[in-house]
Amino acid sequence: MKQIILIIILISIGFSQLKINTIAPDFTLSDAHGIEHTLSDYKGQFVILYFYPKDNTPGCTREACDFRDSFSEIRALNATILGVSWDSSKNHASFTEKYSLPFTLLSDIKGDVTEAYKAAGWFMPKRYTYIIDPLGKIIKVYTKFDISAHSEEIIIFIQSISKPLTKSISK
Questions:
Q1: What's the CATH number for 19-170?
Q2: Does the annotation count 60 as an active-site position?
Q3: Angle at the Cα of 23 (from 131 to 105), degrees rounded to 5?
Q4: Contact between 140 and 21 (Cβ < 8 Å)
Q5: One of 29, 60, 64, 113 is an active-site residue; which one?
Q6: What does the CA dihedral 63, 65, 66, 72 come to, rounded to 10 degrees?
Q7: Domain ranges in the chain?
Q8: Beta bridge pairs of residue 130
Q9: pTM value?
Q10: pLDDT string in tens for the chain (171-residue length)
């Protein structure tokens, strides 16, 4: 019995996230205003696709405000932020307004996108972040991080890979 449980755990760890250098699954979800956003619409720029458990909870608010406070620096790197949770568009609208969030929150009420990105938990989405490159490939996955320093970690990562890209393009 212990062997079966161990095998199940090992298999679930192996499938716990999408792999780096794979094409990010495309999707279409509605934002806080009911406007649909499709991932492929963001080709040509980096996408910070972050999944979070619930609007207006302490950790999720801290993470969203961290992204808000780094928004200008992130946009300067040709990156956009898309937050995804199971909350409704109405809840997203209230959350966005309350904390003056300048980026898009998407409603995945059915959980299909969260499931496709292996970010579905038992009762709410897991706190995962995927960095998708301008060609639509997953280049980094964060599953464990300090939410109050997460945006800075992402900025450093994108800067580190953007410089070599700029140099190789200019040659």
A1: 3.40.30.10
A2: yes
A3: 45
A4: no
A5: 60
A6: 140
A7: 19-170
A8: 49, 141
A9: 0.85
A10: 555 443 444 344 444 568 899 999 999 999 999 999 999 999 999 999 999 999 999 999 999 999 999 999 999 999 999 999 999 999 999 999 999 999 999 999 999 999 999 999 989 999 999 999 999 999 999 999 999 899 999 999 999 998 655 444 444
